């Protein structure tokens, strides 16, 4: 245990995803000992990120404006909506350049163990969006693991009432994996071979 | 097939050790607590991807170390393969096959063994969970892919139980339970696959286990194995008293499960699973746990039309336990394209009377390689020329090395 503010900082870093106690300590001492202006810039960035970045009111992706850059882009096909778990999945799919439609970011997957139910996800917004606009196809691109599959099944059932064609990314994605870690080629193929589920 | 070399590093009580095995009978000899079972466990791990004594892998790593490494050279006729496994305290385990990076899950494709241990008696006499484990271990050895199916199934049960619990406490029943159906889909899909795999296994295992029993007991007690599916029990409308819900009672009427004796019939299994879930739903909501599925099934063992549990003598129970292992080995041998499975007998002879010892030995004699552990040489039946390896304090004692073991140059397995 260190004293006061140093321990506070270690604790804060330790709370971040993917950072264990050892790394938290290393980062903290790097910051404390660093002479450069980088740290000041980092502090400023942290503050502005909180101020400026919001969630797109249409799709739930991260954005600096009311609508994210993808939703604002008139060249995108508004008749296709790809449903993903996290903003980072949007980035992964954009890398494939296979998809020219819009997204809907759920903000997670159904997982009772983690205390996440359908009400904790952006599902109501999705339903409203589908009711208000002309959509030709909804593509479910949740992670190929148990929770992602469960979420996709839940949505498939829910969307049946709207009579919108629904497809699911074809397998080829490593089962039990995270979408964001799938390589571009695999993910691209998964898009081409998506299966109609309803 | 046979093990030719084994090296361990920072594994259990071994800092580093190297063992050479011979075709035919091998004996690991040493006082208790020296590390014999640890070696048997390391070899068995390659076939089942789990220890026969602990469920997690951490106990396998030498105390105070971050990773254990086990390397094993396996031979089948003229072909040799080097299997390597690194068990990590944090992060996932790693494997290499002939020095090429690979998944631990692929290791059992290259090695098969059957391990007999004193704990086997509890398969016959203990909780249903031990019999489920016996079946599941065989299934994974046959088809490593099933390990993922089983892990996913367990996770679905956990998710579902959490959901049932939170629905009960938060009172938002209707709303929360709308997702129960979603988990039910996966529960039925994965669960039915496990149930059918078990049914097929037991169907195939019946004749060799009966033959093995006859061999060991030298008596015909008509051993019988029947899977009792919780889905069938529910559908048969068995009164669901609290006691029966705890675990399926010993001696549950066999007629319930007769229908499952044929090979796996997937659509049929799924259909029944769904029906059972529907029937038991109110009870599940009340109890907030998943009450039906392969995690509640049992393997019902009989001798002379009486349940083994609670009726069979100590000797008969032992014969049955040995027959389960020996029958498994015989079945593997019949299907194998890579020769016999390696038989590993950990401290088993010490548990048996003289006649059973001799009959067991006669039964395993024809196997390509047998690895036995014993605390004293007297526990091992005579009439065999053993390649003896002395184990002491987490090390091999080469100075005691037996005449029968060749002391020539040991191939490089570092
Ligand atoms: N992870 C571990 N680190 C260090 N020692 C261990 C570890 N696991 C087991 N041991 C030691 O190994 C010994 C037991 O070895 P074992 O193979 O079971 O003996 P036996 O020769 O009787 O079969 C015990 O002394 C135990 O403390
Ligand atoms: Mg032992
Ligand atoms: Zn948007």
UniProtKB/TrEMBL annotation, chain A:
For the keyword Cell division, the answer is no
Q: Give every Toprim domain span.
A: 79-174
UniProt key word Lyase: no
Which SMART domains does the UniProt record give?
TOPRIM
GO biological-process terms attached to the record: DNA recombination; DNA repair
Keywords of the record, alphabetical order, are: DNA damage, DNA recombination, DNA repair, Metal-binding, Zinc, Zinc-finger
Q: Which residue spans match zinc fingers labelled C4-type?
A: 56-71
Tell me a Gene Ontology molecular-function term this record carries. Answer: DNA binding
Report the PANTHER family cross-referenced here: RECOMBINATION PROTEIN RECR (PTHR30446:SF0)
Q: Which HAMAP family match?
A: RecR
Query: Hey, which family's this protein in?
Result: Belongs to the RecR family.
Q: What does this protein do?
A: May play a role in DNA repair. It seems to be involved in an RecBC-independent recombinational process of DNA repair. It may act with RecF and RecO.
List the protein's name. Recombination protein RecR
Q: Which species?
A: Klugiella xanthotipulae
Q: Which gene encodes it?
A: recR
Automatic annotation (TrEMBL), chain B:
- The yes or no answer to whether the keyword DNA-binding is present is yes
SUPFAM superfamilies per UniProt: P-loop containing nucleoside triphosphate hydrolases
BP-aspect Gene Ontology terms: DNA replication; DNA synthesis involved in DNA repair; double-strand break repair; SOS response
ATP-binding keyword on record: yes
Q: Where does ATP bind?
A: 30-37
Q: Which HAMAP family match?
A: RecF (MF_00365)
| Protein purpose | The RecF protein is involved in DNA metabolism; it is required for DNA replication and normal SOS inducibility. RecF binds preferentially to single-stranded, linear DNA. It also seems to bind ATP.
This chain belongs to which protein, by name? DNA replication and repair protein RecF
Upper classification of the source organism reads: Bacteria, Bacillati, Actinomycetota, Actinomycetes, Micrococcales
